[in-house]
Amino acid sequence: EFSRQRGLAPDSRCKPFSDAADGIGWGEGAGMVVLERLSDAEANGHRVLAVIRGSAVNQDGASNGLAAPSGPSQQRVIRQALANAGLDASDVDMVEAHGTGTRLGDPIEAQALLATYGQGRDADRPLWVGSLKSNIAHPQAAAGVAGVIKTVLAMEHGLLPAILHHDAPSSHVDWSSGAVRPLARTIAWPEGPGPRRAGVSAFGISGTNAHAVLEQYVPAAAAAPVEGDGVPWLLYGRSEAALREQAARLSAHLDAHPEQSAAGIAHALATTRTAFEHRAAVTAADPEGVRGALAALAAGEEDAPGLLRGQAADGGTVFVFPGQGAQWAGMAARLLDESPVFAERIAECEEALGAFTDWSLTAVLRGAEGAPPLERVDVVQPVLFAVMVSLAALWRSHGVHPDAVVGHSQGEIAAACVAGALSLEDAARVVALRSRALGAIAGRGGMVSVARPAAEVAALIADRSEVLAVATVNGPASTVVAGETSALEELLAACERDGVRARRIPVDYASHSPHVEEIREELAGLLAPVTAKAAEIPFYSTVTGEPLDTTRLTGDYWYENLRGTVRFERATRLLLEHGHRFFVEVSPHPVLVSGVQDTAADAGAPVVAVGSLRRGEGGRDRLLASLAELHVQGGAVDRASLFPGGGGAAHLGLPTYPFQRQRLWLDTSRGGSPAEAAAALGLAPAGHPLLGALGTLPDSGGLVLTGRLSTRTHGWLADHGVSGSLLLPGTAFVELALHAGGRAGCPVVEELTLENPLLLPEQGSVELHLAVGAPDGDGRRTLAVYSRLGADAEGPWLRHATGALTPDAGPDAGPDPEPDAALDPALDPADAPGTAWLPADAEPVDLDALYGAFDEAGYQYGPAFRGLRAAWRAGEEVFAEVELPTGLPGGAGAFGLHPALFDAALHGTFLQGGGRRRLPFAWTGVRLARAGAGAVRARLTPAGQDGVKVVLTDRDGRQVASVDGLVLREVTVLREVTEAQLRDGRAADPLYRLDWTAPAAAPAASGTTWALLGDGEGAAGALADAVAATCAGRPARYPGLAALREALGAGGPVPDAVLLPLPPADGPVTADAVRAAVRGALGLVQDWLAEERLDGARLVVVTDGAVAAGADEPVRDLVHAPVWGLLRSAQTEHPGRFVLLDTAGASPRALSAALSAAAGGDEPQLAARGDAVRAVRLARLDA
């Protein structure tokens, strides 16, 4: 429709509201904006870019078509939007118009703007009109959102962008009828009494009109500063590379925006970023430390001050509550002032403990004068209980919720309380009264920690079991013994004598030993009122070492908890077996973290074990660091909770995510696995990404390997271009040869010569054929590589490479080569990282300059073939570090030596060749020592004229591959090679030509009745004579088709065939003459098809020189040449109804034969030349 109405711009450029406007230029696009209620956005601290003051939508209804919208409807939608916004037209500064650049649509839109916005405003403050379509054409469905985005950006920058391609305002618009002006140039946004405002119009092809009024956002009050000093900076990435780039971007951002606060940046990082799997946390407290940590992260360092790193994983979370030993003077005192959640829970604990104690919990924590010391067991245990329960509440407030709990000794009381099995009051009763009862056995015993497995320790004290007992088993080699003081002294002496690490625990009583039996009766009475209930969280008992029904946590259980052995290691192993990964020790100092880690290591289970506070670090900053330590390993954390009252703080603008721009190739496999496809053909799978099947020749023992290549199935090959053509890299031929040799038992490519490059078509595929010959007396085999177009199953093969494969690996190559001493004779493999492997005189190469020179030389290398990471020159030698880009399908592991990696390793030959464009030509002595390398170090040593020796090693100096000799040849014009391939029968796209040849013999037409249309005796007379010679009778003559139809209406006979001669036109060949001839022929064809009485007849249209029937034959009748094109279309639509016959220079004999073929044969196009008759055929150009 647009084309018919001439609504498309010839130059595909939209020229809105310009006198030069000549139609639309089409584009494609998509846009996205985030909408949120203003109050919600402000409450959530989101950055508001603009405000939608009002909008409206209506419909044209009946109109005059796509290019003629309704002006009144546009006026109505603008007025409705202004009314909804509560604004006058003069309050709006500019309109982003629909403005497509059509000569009809633009004036209608301009008049609507003049009639609405252009009235009642000062001439010196006109409405400015712009259109983004002059920049990006008409992106169709994305036009409206694109206009919104442009307008918001213009508001933000205070500029009104010009309309491009604007020579002068359209003369089809009466601009004097209102104060509206198109933006012929970019100007500053006019300052006014209110905020900046703009309208945005969008009109749909169906007649829908939309208009929105946007307004600059002016916050009602200054944004509240973020509260969150000390909150770690959290960084995320989908990959290690993205995480490192994120750190580098953030570091640069700090330099550019010193005004941004650390808390504000932490808030934005924590609340506006997706928590991807690769994670890091910067915990440094000062600016220099932050910069150092970011620099270390950007450089890929694993360990640096103030930096935590990890990779997220799944698993359950366990809260671990230790027994005595985590206490220290002043523990958690700072949290009382810094954390309302912690302080509130401590207050609840103080109230619950107050019923059983005569001292103040808060006073003990703050170290107040007169408060009892922590050395008292009846003080330290209740205080530790309160701190652990309150820390658990603090962890939960930050979104860390336990999937299970486990306690150690008296820590089980806190675990039961947190799990919901004991009320706070009952838990307080147990811990307070039980610790008071311990006073009866204080001063007569103690405990010793021994770094040996429990079984060994039990054997060590077996002869003193009446005075010593295994009290706790904390890990695979961490056991605690309790008992009489004198017996413990003897144990310590024995351990020292035997070289066993052992230490005394600072307690003066022997819990988990027979000493506890003395207070059993007392505990039964004190704890009788305790009521247990089913836990809300699974409770793993260290009394039994298994999950426990918590309704059993009555007085008897708490006696067993104090008397029996603590089976912490057993409970930990079971938790790990049940899928728990994250262990959070909820205590003022970690004492069980190492035991958890040791148990997990012994069990071979992954684990993340973190503490809460540490001795001497009892504030919120330490807890935040522990939260970060958990989170970077995958622990779930409510990141918004890290900022007290920070919900309404404005988010700072930070660098966006560093997309890695990886190529994500589609999986093009069809119809089952390669092995199944090969088996269906009676072949074996080739086992290689570039090959599909392998067959063995039974008579000779040779092999055939086949495959199919295309840029669709092997997209990375599209990154290897030379002089505008896609070439299979020479390294791919080597990889194919190595694989074929490996399958044939000849792993060494003795020689390989590349005869013709393999050009990959932009469309379609190429078939590969590798022929491996039978072994000779020495086991040596020949190799040849062929290809042909995949769409041409009968096409010729072109040979690309020939070579020889040998089973002899040579004296220098063993099955497991040692580190390559040739790189540096003094180098130890352990020193390989860095540049220690290079000669002392090696000079670095500027890779940007190198690849720039590649581009200028005609190498078009995409990302897959830009694997150089560093390069050096040392004399005539070149050294390089090469790495295969991530994201390539199959990666390095599917190849012996990935062609892209190998090709990049040879890029240093460009330096040795003086910048000449050279390609691999001949290879000798290629050996592969290690398959699947993803990164190599290369040494390229000149070897003769245009030759080089290649050694590839891994980072430890072990050989990956070697080439005794590679000869490179200069390529001047690659198109010459392409032409040679065409001459050999190989073309990227087959070309065809029309070939006129003798038709098959037609049956005799002696019984055919003919009619002849036309007067005169020239061409018509000759045709009449030819009919008479063919059918023994002259044709019926009619002046035209109308006369024939009249005769048929009068009862005349229906002819079998009708001749219509079109003699060459008189006078010069003009466009009018051609149009007249085609129109006349079209009308006659239509009349012929409309006459049902002639459905069984053929119309033979005869021309004289309107078509060339030979390579050197001219077309004399140019006027009627287009008639052949018209009639060919008619023949396609109505087979058998039309025959085209050209008779230039035909003898009477040929003319008679042609008429016989036209009447009785199946040839739709014929040419009579001299004494011969020819029919047209399609023939390949190279045939």
Automatic annotation (TrEMBL):
Residues 688-977 form the PKS/mFAS DH domain. Residues 1-216 form the Ketosynthase family 3 (KS3) domain. GO terms for molecular function: fatty acid synthase activity. Pathway: Antibiotic biosynthesis. Pfam families: Acyl_transf_1, KAsynt_C_assoc, ketoacyl-synt, Ketoacyl-synt_C, PKS_DH_N, PS-DH, SpnB_Rossmann. Transmembrane segments: none annotated. GO terms for biological process: fatty acid biosynthetic process. The active site is at 720 (proton acceptor), 903 (proton donor). Residues 801-839 are annotated as: Disordered. InterPro entries: Ac_transferase_dom_sf, Acyl_transferase_dom, Acyl_Trfase/lysoPLipase, Ketoacyl_synth_C, Ketoacyl_synth_N, Malonyl_transacylase_ACP-bd, NAD(P)-bd_dom_sf, PKS_assoc. Residues 803-813, 822-836 have a biased composition (Low complexity). Signal peptide: none annotated. Keywords: Acyltransferase, Multifunctional enzyme, Phosphopantetheine, Phosphoprotein, Transferase. Residues 688-812 are annotated as: N-terminal hotdog fold. Gene3D superfamilies: 3.30.70.3290, 3.40.47.10, 3.40.50.11460, Malonyl-Coenzyme A Acyl Carrier Protein, domain 2, Polyketide synthase dehydratase. Residues 842-977 are annotated as: C-terminal hotdog fold. This is Acyltransferase domain-containing protein. It comes from Streptomyces katrae.
